[in-house]
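I'm stuck. Protein, please.
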Amino acid sequence: MEKNEDVFHGWMATDAASPMRYQAFKPKTWEETDVDIKISHCGVCASDLHSMRSGWIVGVAVRVGKQAREGIAVGDRVGVGPQGYTCRKPDCDCCSKGQENYCPRRLGTYGDRYPDGSISYGGFADYCRHNSYSVFSIPQGLASEHAAVMLCAGSTVYEPLKEHGAGPETRVGVIGLGGLGHLGVLFAKSMGCERVIAFSRSKSKQEDALELGADEYVATADQPDWAQQHASTLDLIICTVSGPEMPLQEYLGLLRPKGTFCQVGIPEKPLPSLDAMTLVLNGTKIAFSDSASPGNIKEMLNLAAEKGIKAWTETRPMKGANETVADMETGKARFRYVLENKEDSSS
């Protein structure tokens, strides 16, 4: 590696209000289970806006520990999603069942502190260091900018689709057509779902939804009788939006008996209150989901490569990290920004 192995450089936030600054930082203490990655692409996620900036990483493995997991070699194209570390202990109820995304000791790709005091700094940088068991091989045929987005947003919607049985003879609704929602439509269609309906407030994204493959688009603010027209027609709803004003009761009424409503959009405020009796009588299931398990992430990446799934992205230079985050905050992304490292990301 043509660098000081103890000093990386990246865009760092010292507080939530100030612009990020390009500066040196010390990665986590090296362990022989680790991999150092020279970052080529980093996706910008809405959760980054809540956590003082970062992203999901794709690059090339430039240093691989002697005890790293099998299948990673120097020169491989690899990526990291939201989990930078899980305990993998045999007595961990989550890790032992392949559900590392719910490990109680899991640490995020950024903004977390390792047991030895080291800090995870994310991917707005030239290099990153992570435990090899949180590093995924990127299959041929899947572009790095698309993989970077799928490792976060893609895995967030793929997990509930897979876990709640999306596939042939399944009718799926996707609420919200942004970074998460557009991938929800793409993956639901690629999994062979019988019908996929996209829901958003206005008609502004109708053409996008149909181009993504949705069978129908519903603009809830412009179609007064949408809830009645689509009542009891869906088996699974993936909800990527949240807020106290969302018509949650009406969304739940779209489900067939025993249908599932899964919330993946992170609520910043309490969700609306519900009439529980109608849910009881319909056997409605309400679920929540975080990112995907390692097994489902691997499966998702392979499916994307096999089916030629492409996230809708706009690639920008890493040196424009501050401007990109600002544009993300104002809703300009269509539907995800990806930062790309050039030779000099600070200039």
User: Anything to note?
Assistant: The first strand starts at residue 8 and ends at 12. The chain has a mean pLDDT of 92.
